[in-house]
Amino acid sequence: MAKQHVIQDLNNQSVSKVFLRYLIPSMLGMLLVAINIVIDGVMVGNKLGSTALAGLNIASPVYTIFVAMSIWIGVGGATKYSQAMGAGERSKAQTVFSYSVTIIIAASLVIGMTAFLFRDSLVYALGANAETHPYASAYMNVMLLFGFVFTVENALSIFVRNDGNPTLSMAAQITFALSNIVINYFILYVFELGVDAVAFGTILAASLGLLVLLTHFLKRTNNLRFKRFKWDRALLFAILIIGFPSLLAEVGISVFTLSHNIALERIAGTDGVAAFSVVNYIHSVILLTFLGMGSAIQPLISYYHGGGQELRKRQTIRIAVKTAIGAGASLLLLVQLAALPIVGLFGNFSSSVTGHAEYGIRIFVIAYLFMGINFVMMTYFQSIGSIKMATWITAAREMILMLAFIIVLPAFIGITGVWIAVPLSECIVMITIIVYYRKHMMSINTLNRGGTGIGQSADE
Hints:
Transmembrane segments: 20-39, 51-75, 96-118, 138-159, 171-191, 197-214, 235-258, 278-304, 325-347, 359-380, 392-413, 419-437
Number of strands: 0
Protein name: Multidrug export protein MepA
Family: Belongs to the multi antimicrobial extrusion (MATE) (TC 2.A.66.1) family. MepA subfamily.
Membrane topology: Multi-pass membrane protein
Oligomer: single chain
Organism: Paenibacillus spongiae
Number of helices: 18
Order of helices and strands: HHHHHHHHHHHHHHHHHH
Structural class: mainly alpha
């Protein structure tokens, strides 16, 4: 009956209603997580100063790597799970779930322990200097030892959403966000501890979110069952390939942070890195908002693709793109109008830090006109198994084009070249998506007129 309940929801309700049922919890959950990140930055910046804030920003790629691991296997596994459920193969879906969770736990423990052995070299490789090293090191060491909590919590959240319970996934995100704010307030302002305690507080908050997710297993509509499985190389390969664009996206965040830290440190010193820390916290809010859109459509596109429901796939992506355009334009306008007050939230910084941050964010936010569309389309191609295009979108916007612009442009236009790298890369990638999608839809229409190919991906 549980499986039938999910099928009735996704098959019988209108596409717009199903989309909203997934979009609203995903967006709210991600938005609260983003607000939590910003408030963390505000509290650290106001209590411990801009150097401590820069240290946390330098160490943040470690946190991102753990999230990347969970999303890589979580999204890959959850996509296979939803495709199997859409095709009516419940036992196969449960095998995928059991296999994915086992891999996530084992891999995150191995990575965390290995990186901890090389922690001193790692913190300098991430861009720390003599000023920021104590803060970056203290935060990073805690994350390396206990980051596996994030991988399990985040991956389980993805599976719960794909099992037809986006509201509980949102509740777990809210629990994590609100408890993290409260815990870290006490750590910084009541007990007056340092950034290592802030890291411990975040781990504790993630553990509370995990407890919320575990209640899904008590529900009658739960299809997530652990079952014994045999080693399946083909299944592992499929999960890793499908989830690879998501891994690349998370690694790209680390590349984004590291490249901007290094470029701005070279051009403007610690003030430049501190300014980028402010921009990066604000960007995290927008990034997670767009990620919420992707999280909303992934279960739907995967399910419809598995069931061969081409019309519902098209309707879903059309609604999602329109939503992304509206959100991007609104966010751009908001940040442009309130750039200086937003920067001021993070502390009473020097005029140099404030000036760099305000100037940078006004240029940087142009990217939001294109970024939402790129996120949505990457998720679409990933969910239908068109991995080559999904990988291109991610690699081009977060690595290939962005790094090329950061390396080349500052020689001609100085610090402006760093700030404008992301808007330029996002715009170019969006153009390539438009060209490819038109060809993609033409090929599907041709196949359908021939009586075959419904539900097949472009790569297939």
